[in-house]
Design a protein that fits this description.
Layout lengths: L7 H33 L10 E12 L3 E5 L4 E7 H13 L3 E12 L2 H15 L4 E6 L3 E2 L1 H7 L4 E4 L4 E2 L12 H7 L2 E6 L10 H4 L5 H26 L3 H9 L6 H6 L5 E2 L2 H12 L8 E4 H18 L4 E7 L11 H13 L5 E8 L1 E3 H17 L1 E11 L1 H4 L6 E4 L4 E3 L4 E6 L1 H6 L23 H26 L3 H7 L4 E3 H7 L4 E2 L2 H11 L8 E4 L6 H11 L14 H13 L6 E3 L8
Parallel strand pairs: 1-3, 1-4, 1-11, 4-5, 5-7, 6-8, 7-10, 12-13, 12-21, 13-15, 15-16, 15-17, 16-20
Antiparallel strand pairs: 2-3, 9-18, 14-22, 17-19
C-alpha cells in the first residue's frame, strides 16, 4: 500500500487557523457573557436583608486577586486575594444585611499559613453571632480544606466524598543519576557551613542529607500540631484521637468523619439548603438570597481603597509574593522598590506593613529591596508580616524591619546562599556537538561549556562566602544580635514562625491583620482608620466576570496544568523556576505543598 504524505503546510495552517478561531470564539463568548452580566446586575442581585454570602472556596488563594486569559491554553487562570477575603469577612460581620456564610468547598489551594489566617477571619466573623455553615461536595476532602472548614459552626459533606486524613508527608526527587546519564555535570557552591541549605541536594545526592531530613521533619510536625490544636479548639476533639485516626487510616470518607465527630452529618446539597432555609426562615429554596462572597469582598475592598486614597491614610500595606527577581511585575526589586518609594513620598503615611510571602530568589534583587526597606524604616516604621514563606531572600528583605510578625506555620529563616554551575560540554558531545575555546586571557571563557579549574572554583566559592557573611551581618544589625549568634541559628536552616520567635528571628506570632493593628497603634490611627494597599487595588471587570461564571455554576480553571501527573508537573515547575536563577541565589531549600 502506498503511504500518503500530508504536506506540512496543510497541517500547520489547519492547526494554526483552528487555534485562532478558537481564541476568537473565546473572546466572543466572553463578550456575550459580559453583556449578559448587565442583566444580572439588577435590583434582583442587590443585597437584601436576609442575605447569605456564598463563599466558594475553590482554586488558588494568593495575596492579590487576579484573573487572566491564557490564549494558548484557551483557559482562565484566576486567584482570590487573601487581603480582600479577610476584609470582606470583616465587613460582612458589621453588615446588617448579611445573616451568615455558606462555605462551599471545592479543590482549595493555598499555603497552610494562608489557611490559618482565613480560619482566623472566619472566627472573627462568628463573634458577630451570625451563622457559618460549611459544605464539602468534591470528589475528596483534603486535610487543608477540612482545616479551614473546621472553623465553621456546622460541617456537612456529600455522602460519597472521600476524606483524606493521614498526616503530613513529602518527597524529594533526586536527579543525580539522570544528569550523569545525560553527561551533565554540576558544580555546587554553598556558603561556608550552610549544611541545611538543601535546595541543590537533588543535583548531587541520591537521598536527603541528615540535615535536610531533620529540618523537614521538624517543620511538618510543628505544622501538624498547629493544625490539630486549632481543630481541637473548634470541634471539641482530642489530639490523641486525631493522631490515632491518621495512623490507622480510620477516616476514609465522609461517613467515617461523621462517626468520629469531625463532621456533623453527610448530606446532599438540597438537604444542606434546607438547613440554610431554616436559618433565614424561608420555606422555598428559591427564596434563599445568596450573594457571591467573592464579588462582595472585592466590591467592599475596592470601595474602601478608593476612599483611603482620597483621604489621608496613616498606614500603607505593601503586598509582595513569589520568587524574588530583578525584573517583573511580581516580587521583583524593580517593582517592590518603586512601591516603597511611593509609600515614603506619601506624607500622610506614618508606617508601612510589608507583607512578605516568598521562598527567596536573587541575591542582588534581595539586596536592592533590603536597601529600600532600610531607607523607609529610617523615616517610617516598617512592620513585616510573614505569610506562608519568608525564607532566605524573603527573610533577607525582612531583616531591617522595626518589628516582624509571622504566623505559627510560616516557613522562615533559611539564612544561606548557594550557586549552581553546570558543565554541558560532555553532554553536547554525546549528540555530536564539539566545543573549542579561545581567549586573550586564562579565564576569558565563562560559559557552561567551560569546566572550572580548581582556582576558578575557589574564586567563586569565596564570593559565595562573602555574600553569606553579608547576609549574617544584615540579620545581626537588623535583629540586634552578634554575627556569631546569627551564624549558630543560620546555616541555611528553616524554622517555623513559632520556633523563629524563640530564637529571635521573629518578634511575635500574629496575622496580617495583627501587623496592621500594630501599625495603626504606633501611627496614632484608630482601628477604623484608612489603610492604603500597594499595588493599588483597581476595578477588574474580568475578575467580576469570573465570579459571575462561577456563581452561575460554570467551571473555571484556577490553574492550567501543563503535565497531568503531579510528580511530573512538580518537576517541570522546579526546572522552570531554576531557569530564573542568575548569579548567587538566596532561596528556600524545598517546596511545600500541603493537601
Amino acid at each position: 500500500m502506498e503511504e500518503t504524505k500530508i504536506p506540512f503546510r496543510k497541517v500547520f495552517w489547519s492547526v494554526f487557523l483552528s487555534r485562532i478561531l478558537s481564541f476568537f470564539g473565546l473572546l466572543v463568548f466572553i463578550g456575550i457573557i459580559i453583556g449578559l452580566g448587565g442583566l444580572f446586575d439588577s435590583d434582583e442581585s442587590a443585597m437584601k436583608s436576609d442575605t447569605i454570602l456564598h463563599v466558594k472556596l475553590n482554586g488558588l488563594i494568593a495575596e492579590e486577586n487576579s484573573a487572566e486569559v491564557d490564549p494558548l491554553a484557551l483557559s482562565v487562570n484566576s486567584t482570590k486575594g487573601l487581603s480582600a477575603l479577610l476584609y470582606g469577612l470583616k465587613a460582612a460581620a458589621k453588615d446588617d444585611n448579611v445573616k451568615g456564610l455558606f462555605l462551599d468547598f471545592g479543590t482549595l489551594s493555598c499555603g497552610i499559613s494562608s489557611a490559618q489566617e482565613l480560619r482566623e477571619g472566619i472566627d472573627a466573623f462568628k463573634e458577630s453571632k451570625k451563622f457559618v455553615v460549611a459544605y464539602h461536595s468534591g470528589e475528596y476532602i483534603s486535610q487543608q480544606a477540612y482545616y479551614v472548614a473546621s472553623a465553621a459552626d456546622e460541617i456537612y459533606g456529600f455522602p460519597g466524598s472521600m476524606f483524606q486524613w493521614n498526616g503530613l508527608g513529602g518527597e524529594v526527587l533526586f536527579i543525580k543519576e539522570l544528569l550523569a546519564k545525560m553527561g551533565l555535570e554540576v558544580s555546587i557552591l554553598k556558603g561556608n557551613n550552610n549544611d541545611f541549605k538543601s535546595a541543590v541536594e537533588p543535583l548531587f545526592l541520591n537521598k536527603m542529607s541528615d540535615s535536610s531530613r531533620l529540618q523537614m521533619q521538624v517543620y511538618m510536625q510543628s505544622t501538624w500540631n498547629t493544625m490539630l490544636t486549632d481543630i481541637v479548639s473548634s470541634r471539641g476533639l482530642k489530639h490523641e484521637d486525631l493522631n490515632t485516626y491518621a495512623n490507622n487510616l480510620e477516616i476514609k470518607n465522609v461517613n467515617d468523619a461523621v462517626e468520629k465527630g469531625m463532621m456533623d452529618e453527610s448530606m446532599y446539597r438540597d438537604e444542606v439548603l434546607k438547613i440554610l432555609m431554616k436559618k433565614v426562615k424561608v420555606k422555598e429554596e428559591n427564596e434563599l438570597n445568596f450573594y457571591s462572597f467573592s464579588s462582595y469582598s472585592e466590591e467592599e475592598f475596592l470601595t474602601d481603597q478608593i476612599l483611603a486614597r482620597a483621604s489621608e491614610p496613616k498606614v500603607a500595606v505593601i503586598l509582595a509574593e513569589g520568587s524574588i527577581a530583578k525584573t517583573g511585575k511580581g516580587f521583583s526589586s524593580d517593582n517592590i522598590c518603586a512601591l516603597f518609594k511611593k509609600a515614603r513620598k506619601n506624607e500622610s503615611v506614618k508606617s508601612v506593613v510589608f507583607r512578605v510571602n516568598s521562598p527567596g530568589g536573587s541575591a542582588l534583587a534581595s539586596e536592592e529591596i533590603w536597601r529600600e526597606v532600610s531607607l523607609t524604616n529610617e523615616v517610617k516604621k516598617v512592620i513585616v508580616s510573614m505569610g506562608d514563606y519568608a525564607a532566605s531572600g524573603g527573610y533577607y528583605v525582612s531583616s531591617p524591619a522595626h518589628k516582624i510578625f509571622a504566623d505559627q506555620t510560616t516557613l522562615t529563616g533559611s539564612i544561606g546562599v548557594f550557586g549552581v554551575l553546570p558543565y554541558t560540554k560532555e553532554m553536547l558531545g554525546k549528540i555530536g556537538v564539539e566545543v573549542d575555546e579561545i581567549g586573550t586571557h586564562d579565564h576569558a571563557v565563562a560559559s557552561t561549556n567551560h569546566k572550572l579549574s580548581d582556582f576558578e572554583f575557589e574564586i567563586a566559592q569565596q564570593e559565595v562566602n562573602k555574600i553569606y557573611q553579608q547576609f549574617l551581618l544584615r540579620v545581626a544589625n537588623g535583629r540586634g544580635m552578634s554575627k556569631e549568634k546569627v551564624d549558630a541559628i543560620a546555616r541555611g536552616r528553616v524554622w517555623t514562625g513559632s520556633d523563629a520567635v524563640k530564637i529571635g528571628l521573629v518578634d511575635t506570632i500574629g496575622s496580617l491583620q495583627a501587623a496592621i493593628s500594630y501599625a495603626q497603634s504606633i501611627s496614632n490611627s484608630n482601628e477604623d482608620g484608612s489603610i492604603v494597599y500597594y499595588p493599588e487595588v483597581e476595578k477588574k471587570p474580568f475578575a467580576d466576570l469570573i465570579s459571575l461564571l462561577e456563581e452561575e455554576g460554570m467551571n473555571v480553571k484556577a490553574k492550567q496544568n501543563i503535565l497531568n501527573h503531579p510528580i511530573l508537573e512538580s518537576l517541570y515547575e522546579n526546572i522552570e523556576s531554576a531557569q530564573e536563577w542568575e548569579g548567587m541565589v538566596m532561596r528556600l531549600p524545598f517546596q511545600i505543598d500541603i493537601k
